[in-house]
Design goal:
The protein contains 5 helices and 10 strands; from the N terminus they run αβαβββββαααββββ. With about 290 residues, the chain is α+β, with helices and mostly antiparallel strands. The chain has one domain: Hotdog Thioesterase (Thiol Ester Dehydrase, Chain A, Roll). The protein has a 10-stranded antiparallel beta sheet. Helix 2 runs antiparallel to helix 3. The N and C termini lie far apart (about 50 Å).
């Protein structure tokens, strides 16, 4: 079944999509306010903080084109993998040149890989989409975005026990999530996935313990803490991997270590029980 399904989606490999966006200041001001930044205004020519490019190139599907979970119906750009749960599992990003407020940016997206497998908790599908952002002078940012599709939990399979987060960190911040935070980030990124704002759907349909904190929002918290701690550091790359959902029901910890001699810093998210929920690495061009 796995091989047959894998073959079914081969026609999506290499599929490309081009979009463009002007990096206006309004979404940035909205995110700055949502993150409780002291400075919430931006002007043309200002540099976008890392990962804030996710405020742009938004998927604006019609209301009639949405599936039950709030995502656009599958089978257009992304393959129609018939598994109900969909999550942003991770990304690997190379920062080539700064993105500036007011720039007009083209994004070329290509489906790089599609993998189907059986896991301990059921069927799994993995799709990797490569994005390249360019201005009139050439590429400014490259990203690989991992999407995971899962079965609904049945209670008949045992998930792998969560990993414990490292308690030895050089800097940390506690975040208290709530529905307002999640709603504002969903609105800023035009993300209608119901697990982030519809508690009844998240718990009763997808069997989560509460509203799910967005993976890219967690990653943004990680780099916000890092750049606040090392404001003079210049990032060359960033990667993260989501390991366990974070819910709005409890505070979570954003943690990190100082850069090593190679300019690499370890970052992670731990929930209130000390479980490792996201691991990440920041790579620097210049050490702070």
């Amino acid at each position: 079944m796995e091989n047959d399904s894998q073959q079914q989606f081969q026609e999506w490999l290499g599929k490309a999509q081009s979009t463009s966006s002007v990096l206006t200041n309004a979404p940035m001001e909205g995110l700055a306010a949502t993150l409780d930044r002291d400075v919430t205004t931006f002007s043309a020519g200002d540099t976008l903080p890392p990962l804030w490019h996710w405020l742009y190139f938004l998927e604006t599907s019609k209301q009639s084109e949405l599936a039950e979970d709030g995502h656009p119906q599958r089978g257009d750009f992304l393959p129609p993998i018939p598994l109900p749960r969909r999550m942003w599992a991770g990304s690997r990003i190379n920062f080539i040149r700064p993105l500036l407020v007011g720039d007009s940016i083209e994004r070329e997206s290509t489906i790089k890989s599609i993998k189907l497998k059986q896991g301990r908790s059921g069927s799994l599908g993995f799709v990797c989409v490569a994005h390249e952002l360019s201005d009139s002078s050439g590429p400014v940012l490259q990203e690989e975005h991992d999407i995971v599709y899962r079965d609904m939990p049945t209670g008949k399979t045992s998930a792998q026990p969560p990993l414990k987060a490292d308690e030895d960190h050089d800097f940390a911040r506690t975040v208290i999530p709530d529905p307002t935070l999640l709603f504002r980030y969903s609105a800023l990124t035009f993300n209608a996935h119901r697990i982030h704002y519809d508690r009844a759907y998240a718990k009763d349909v997808e069997s989560y313990d509460g509203l799910v904190v967005h993976g890219p929002l967690l990653a943004t918290f990680l780099l916000e803490l890092f750049t606040d701690t090392y404001p003079d550091a210049t990032l060359s790359a960033f990667s993260f991997k989501a390991l366990k959902p974070v819910f709005d029901t409890d505070p979570f910890q954003v943690c990190g270590t100082k850069p090593d001699n190679s300019g690499n810093a370890k970052l992670w998210i731990a929930d209130s029980a000390g479980n490792l929920c996201m691991e990440a690495r920041a790579e620097l061009i210049s050490a702070p």
